[in-house]
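MOLECULE: protein
FOLLOWS: sequence and fold
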Amino acid sequence: MASRKEQREEARKQREEREAQEHAKARRKRRIWQIVSALAVAIVVLVIALAISSSGGKSDTKVTKKEGEKTSNLFTGIAQNGLTLGNQQAKVTIYEFADLQCPFCKQYTTTVFPQLVSKYVKPGKVKMVFRNLTFIGPDSITAARAAAAAGAQNKLWDFADLFYNNQGTENSGYVTDKYIENLAKTAGVDPAKLKSDQSAPFVEQQLGEAQQQAQEFGINSTPSFLIQIGNGKPQKLSYNNFKLEEFSKPIDAALAKAGS
């Protein structure tokens, strides 16, 4: 028969064995969770990469003939001069501050903008000036340079309209040379001249002036608008949603003051 001392030693030995087994089990469990976590991270990265390549990567976008005709019809009969759309002698000017990657700018362009063009710009009552901001990221800068270069061929507004209709995922690298070339061709722009003009001094000047004016008037979101009567100081045009009446009220008021 074992002594008390031997019984205690045996109990201690069994306890240590159980603890060792528990520690080993815990280590295996932690290792399994580490592997599972690593796999989960890898899957998330893969899903994001696939999403970008499939939904955001529109570098090979083929702008449809129908899109080109729609844009052409929108601006038919309207003069374009660099950044300006419409009658140069119009007494009321709307300055639009936009980032071509901005989804809200796209929403404005595809909803209320065509109505404003039809009601005010085509009749020669109002002219619009494009102020391109580039706060979203690298693709915004590339897009802005291309738009400014299109403006040198008096096709900025056509280019911007087609850009919005083929807008990709923000900063996914979709604004490639091929993407720009496809838009340019559909907009009636010489792609070779556009590519050359993208690095021209006047492009830097236009983007710098847009940023300076945005800072002057406290504009920190897009799309934002200023409205100007004659050569007076521009005023902010406030709106709550992209509905015609939100814009037509201040425009009509400005036209009345201008005597138009």
